[in-house]
Specification:
five-stranded antiparallel β-sheet; three-stranded antiparallel β-sheet; 4 helices; alpha+beta
Length: 166
């Protein structure tokens, strides 16, 4: 018997950014949520996840957000938070060099596109974007030393089908 269902959001629960949860999915969650814990596991921010949690009626569960950097408890509070220091962000960007097509930084629950916009915020995710499998492989090879300290994952990019979100 299953005890937990973890739902990814982008590309799984929702087909495109801006979509809402379909009625079919909402009904399915209503059917199982009393016998199975249903939780989100997503790169989405706290604010974005909060709306989905409400829409699905799964507030009584734990949820993993911001690419695994935060865990929300059933009261909606951030119970566990991991962050990246500003010094380590500089190190990661130096290791990657000019290889990534773009960057993303989740600071204080807001996605930013430039390290200059971070200020003194708490950064939970550093994202490097690629446009192709070859570019992804090159970025990953440059980040070998970073992988000794931080988890590096490769996910699909919702805007670029051939690209990746590292």
């Amino acid at each position: 018997m299953y005890k937990l269902l973890l739902l990814d959001v982008d590309g799984t629960l929702l087909k495109q950014k801006g979509d809402s949860v379909s009625l079919v999915v909402q009904r399915a969650v209503v059917q199982i949520k009393n016998s199975v814990h249903v939780s989100l596991c997503t790169g989405r921010t706290h604010q974005d996840a909060k709306q989905l949690i409400e829409d699905l009626g799964i507030a009584s569960s734990y949820h993993v957000i911001e690419s695994g950097a935060k865990v929300l408890n059933p009261q909606g509070e951030e119970e566990n938070v991991k962050s990246v220091s500003l010094g380590d962000i500089e190190w990661i960007l130096a290791e990657a060099g000019s290889t990534p097509a773009a960057y993303g930084f989740c600071a204080d629950g807001i996605w930013l596109d430039s390290p200059e916009k971070i200020g003194s915020g708490l950064v939970t995710t550093v994202a490097l974007h690629s446009h192709s499998k070859q570019q992804t492989d090159l970025i990953m090879s440059k980040l070998e030393r970073v992988g000794d300290k931080y988890h590096i994952g490769v996910g699909s990019h919702w805007q670029i089908k051939e690209g990746a979100f590292i």
